[in-house]
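Q: Hi! New to this. If I give you a protein sequence and the SMILES for pyridoxal-5'-phosphate, can you show me the bound structure?
A: Yes, paste them in.
Q: Okay, here:
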Amino acid sequence: MDDALALVSGHATNVSMIAQLLGPRDLILHDEYAHNSIVLGAKLSGAQRLPFPHNDWQSLTELLRTHRRQAERCLIAVEGVYSMDGDYPDLPRLLEIKKRFAAWLMVDEAHSLGVLGPRGSGIASHFSVDSREVDIWMGTLSKTLASCGGFVAGSQELIDQLRYLAPGFLYSVGLSPADGAAALQALKILQREPERVSRLQNRGQRLLEGFRELGIDPGPSQGFAIVPWIVGSSLRAVQLSEQLLQAGIDVQPILYPAVPERRARLRFFVSSEHSAQDIEGTLTQIAALV
Ligand SMILES: Cc1ncc(COP(=O)(O)O)c(C=O)c1O
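A: Thanks. Here is the predicted structure of the protein with pyridoxal-5'-phosphate bound:
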């Protein structure tokens, strides 16, 4: 990465960046579960926008085969970890595809920074891939970094173009010093204390394993910070959420229409501050409900 740029929110970063970089002669392919800010940026750009089925690189390849030739430039947009399912894309495969079809690859690390990779540096380190192979890295300061703001990192040309032309940077206030300092401090702690990352990964893996032992459907979750319990009914998800709250466990239901009714769920967020006892206690409470 040559350079980076910070904006006042992760949402504004995606909207402004994608809308500025792409235009009506271009093509944007994004995972069907991509965040609203990616979709909105793509719509604003005026480019042809094609969602591909979640984490399905074969369908992505098919869409590229059919549509790439007609477009001038092409962007493939994915996330490092998906916030509803807690799974992640096959980055090496996507790199191969983006090279084959002369496309840019953008990875939104909102949920993977501090979560994936041995030291929490994200999906590139998880796959031991050179991060310079990805054209656009985007992330937010509002999750692992416990602050507020968004960032883009990439080549000097990319960052220069955004610095002078992206409306969310040009026509909006800059990141506040307090938010910048808070995020920087969180980043320093992350780098200084990688044991927080391994603790988070261990807790997440244990919750996932415990769900499987109980016969609970965690969907495609890989046990990195986000582990859903697919309940399959919005009503039941609300009831279970209330019962767990009574037992001291705060887990929010995700209901139709945010997800299809048969995919209604409880979404567990694991943090490095959860103790092994917290996870075992949660599994015991859940066991009493299934
Ligand atoms: C994948 C993803 N990208 C971008 C954003 C937007 O980030 P922010 O909340 O910092 O505006 C979010 C926030 O929920 C997100 O989940």
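A: The chain has eleven helices and ten strands. Let me know if you'd like me to explain how to read the tokens.
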